Amino acid sequence: QVHLVESGGGLVQAGGSLRLSCAISGSYSSSYAMGWFRQAPGKEREFVSAINWSGASKYYGNSMKGRFTISRDNAKSTVYLQMNSLKPEDTANYYCAAGANPYLSGNYYSSQAYAYWGQGTQVTVSS
After folding, report:
1. Which of 16, 83, 108, 113 is the most exposed place for a label (fewest CB within 10 A)?
2. For each of the chain's 127 residues, which pLDDT tens digit applies?
3. CB within 8 A of 48, min separation 6: which ones?
4. For 101-106, which contacts have Cβ atoms below 8 Å and span 24 or more sequence positions?
5. Cα–Cα distance measured from residue 23 to residue 70, given in angstroms and rounded to the nearest whole number
6. With contact defined as beta carbons under 8 Å apart, do 21 and 8 qualify?
7. Left, alpha or beta for 86 (phi > 0: left; psi -120 to 50: alpha)?
8. Could you tell me if 60 and 48 are in contact, meaning their C-beta atoms sit under 8 angstroms apart?
9. DSSP secondary-structure letter at 59?
């Protein structure tokens, strides 16, 4: 069983930065491919970023490229999402998710590729 806990959300002005963290606990906690998704009220869950177990492979949603950076520290069993140049449209509840194995599957951008989910952390960007 894998348990995920997000933190680091909050209220920030447009142009500001936040760093989200996802603490992973459970067996083989450093051995999972990880993803970040977000969901705004009334909208579908949206892919944000993904990283494989080693950190060598990373992917981003189109609107996040150049602004967001995903990373992981396996010694701390934590995955991070550094978010810069935030915009009001980035306002959402952000979720981290763990895949069922170390490697990113071909549908890494789909929530169906992930087996475990955290409860989410709210990010609000004011204009």
Report:
1. 16
2. 899 999 999 999 999 999 999 999 987 777 899 999 999 999 999 999 999 999 999 999 999 999 999 999 999 999 999 999 999 999 999 999 999 888 888 899 999 999 999 999 999 999 9
3. 35, 36, 37, 38, 60, 61, 64, 68, 81, 94
4. 101/31, 101/32, 101/33, 102/31, 102/32, 102/33, 102/52, 102/53, 102/54, 103/33, 103/52, 103/53, 104/33, 104/50, 104/51, 104/52, 104/57, 104/59, 105/33
5. 14
6. yes
7. beta
8. yes
9. E
* Gap between the Cα atoms of 90 and 25, Å rounded: 27
> Six-digit token pair at 19?
């760093």
